[in-house]
Write a structure and sequence with these properties.
By secondary structure, chain A is an alpha/beta fold. Chain A has nine helices and ten strands. Chain B has one domain: MetI-like fold. Chain B is built from ten helices and no strands. The chains are: A alpha/beta, B mainly alpha.
């Protein structure tokens, strides 16, 4: 098996893995947005792997729900896809670009294409809503977009359009920490839209929200995904939401893939064992 | 008829934690050392004795008698020297705060680019902090000569040590999620710092800087006593010549300036913290 270090070290020079040369043996990969093979993660001082032998392919435009108990490995898997957590082994490719082994510069370029929505929003609390959204362009335009005053005019216009898209244009000048949880998550989605992502990773985006706000946020993400044809992987705890908003449901248990089926083919009873007490 | 309420909780099967824990060996050692120093100081004349206190109060009365009313005949030169003191404090604090920002970024575990830079910057902060401002004043008087330049440099180094340490600790305390959020966007390292870390730490930075400014206002007076410019030298001269009435004018002027500094800094802190 090839070690991650022997993979291409820079995306600038790495071959973009074309369809038939996908990482996963036996997959055509023609429309693969995300490919994961033999992925393994172990946290420092942990006795067991947080993720072991994960093989996964998500096709372009697909919406996938990751379900599982706390500690099952959902957040670890999502973070690992853009190397916010370093994998201990295995290979990852996003839109055909090798993630494992990518240099720091190359990794930044990969992250530009991948929008990440976090459970706790991860916004900068003292800044305005508009300021937070403008920062979403930092991947494309660099550090000058860390302040609205130094950002190019087109970035400022785009930021306002993104706020209009999530229905928060009226709150552009408000400090983001004065908004409700649902509104903050919408701001985080607007910031993510500034990246113009091809893939969206959402780590329990509605876990901190009331049911109405949760539905609103998922509805928004779903419509954005449909408009832009982006691939979505979202970690969710609620089976009914997973079945409603995803095309495919993947169950994780104790760091391994336990379940992978189209949402249309499964029901809540089938998914319940995923939430059985972990070992 | 209703069931009687349970008046006593059932006895737990697990042993309760003790009401008072036994002090650790380290705690005992610290208590013994501090206690020993206090007893030694009291018995060896470090303590304030009642007879000297009584004499002191009497002499203080003589000082007050000589000092009141304050002599304002030299108010012009005194205000000019005071202006130099204020400018020393402002300039020294500004330079110190500006220099301590990059130093703190290097000295914070979560933002330093390399462990060697972390070690060097922590060492610089420690040296700046542990040597008192008066000693820095003496050193810079030797280096650049008598005058406010030495005072500004002494305050700069002192503020660098103070702010560098607290800025670094504030950066280390930042919610890692904020940094992770910007890293996930693909933001460059400087963008994460300028767009995420600095704004998140700004209230703490401003509060620390304001405390540094208050401290600098007081330091700039004392630094004059060692020849580092400002009002301190005027005060030392008046005291040496037993011109207590003139000294009182200077002391009142210093008091006024320090109070203004504290009020302004408190107002800025309130505004930034939103309290």
């Amino acid at each position: 098996m090839t070690s991650p270090s022997s993979l291409a070290t820079d995306v600038d020079v790495a071959a973009r893995l074309s369809g038939s040369d996908g990482l996963l043996a036996g997959t055509t990969g023609a429309a693969a947005a995300i490919e994961v093979r033999s992925l393994r993660v172990r946290y420092r001082r942990a006795k067991a792997d947080a993720l072991s032998d994960i093989d996964l392919q998500v096709n372009e435009g697909e919406t996938v729900a990751l379900i599982g108990t706390n500690g099952a490995g959902k957040s670890t898997l999502l973070r690992c896809l853009v190397r916010l957590i370093e994998p201990a082994g295995g290979r990852i490719a996003i839109s055909g670009t090798e993630v494992t082994g990518a240099s720091r510069t190359a990794l930044r370029a990969i992250r530009c294409d991948v929008g990440f929505v976090f459970q706790r929003y991860h916004l900068i609390p003292r800044l305005t809503t508009f300021h937070n959204v403008v920062q979403g362009a930092m991947g494309r335009h660099g550090s000058r977009c860390c302040w609205p005053s130094t950002s190019p005019g087109d970035v400022r216009h785009e930021a306002m359009q993104c706020l209009e898209r999530v229905g928060l244009a009226a709150f552009a000048d408000r400090r983001v920490d004065t908004l409700s949880g649902g509104q903050q998550q919408r701001v985080a989605i607007a910031r993510m839209l500034m990246q113009r992502p091809r893939v969206i990773l959402a780590d329990e985006p509605v876990a901190s929200l009331d049911p109405a706000s949760a539905n609103g946020v998922l509805e928004l993400m779903s419509s954005i995904a449909a408009e832009r044809g982006v691939t979505v992987i979202m970690a969710l705890h609620q089976i009914e939401l997973a079945l409603h908003y995803a095309d495919r449901v993947i169950g994780l248990r104790n760091g391994t893939l336990e379940f992978d089926q189209p949402a249309a083919d499964c029901d809540a009873a089938q998914l319940n064992p995923i939430f059985a007490e972990s070992t | 008829m209703t069931e009687p309420a349970i008046r006593t909780a059932p006895r737990p099967t697990t042993a309760l934690p003790p009401r008072v824990r036994r002090p650790s060996l380290l705690t005992l050692v610290i208590v013994l050392v501090v206690g020993g120093l206090l007893v030694h100081g009291w018995t060896q004349g470090v303590a304030v004795r009642p007879d000297s206190l009584l004499t002191g109060v009497f002499r203080l009365g003589e000082f007050v008698d000589d000092a009141v009313p304050p002599d304002v005949s030299r108010v012009g030169p005194i205000l000019a020297a005071l202006l130099v003191t204020v400018e020393m404090a402002l300039l020294g604090t500004l330079l110190g705060v500006v220099l301590s920002l990059p130093l703190a970024v290097l000295a914070a575990r979560n933002t330093t680019p390399h462990w060697s830079l972390y070690a060097v910057s922590r060492a610089v902060i420690t040296v700046s902090r542990t040597i008192p401002d008066l000693i820095w004043g003496l050193i810079f008087v030797i280096a650049v000569g008598l005058g406010p330049e030495a005072g500004v440099l002494a305050i700069t180094v002192d503020v660098m040590g103070f702010c560098g340490r607290f800025f670094a600790e504030s950066i280390e305390d930042i919610d890692p999620g904020r940094v992770e959020g910007l890293r996930a966007i693909g933001a460059p390292r400087f963008g994460v710092l300028a767009g995420g870390v600095i704004p998140a730490c700004l209230p703490s930075f401003v509060t620390t800087s304001m405390f540094a400014l208050e401290s600098s206002a007081r330091s700039s007076v004392v630094l004059g006593l060692v020849g580092a410019g400002g009002i301190g030298i005027e005060l030392a001269t008046s005291m040496t010549l037993l011109r207590y009435d003139e000294a009182l004018t200077i002391i009142l002027a210093i008091l006024g300036v320090v109070v203004v500094f504290e009020r302004v800094s408190a107002a800025i802190r309130r505004r930034v913290l939103g309290v």
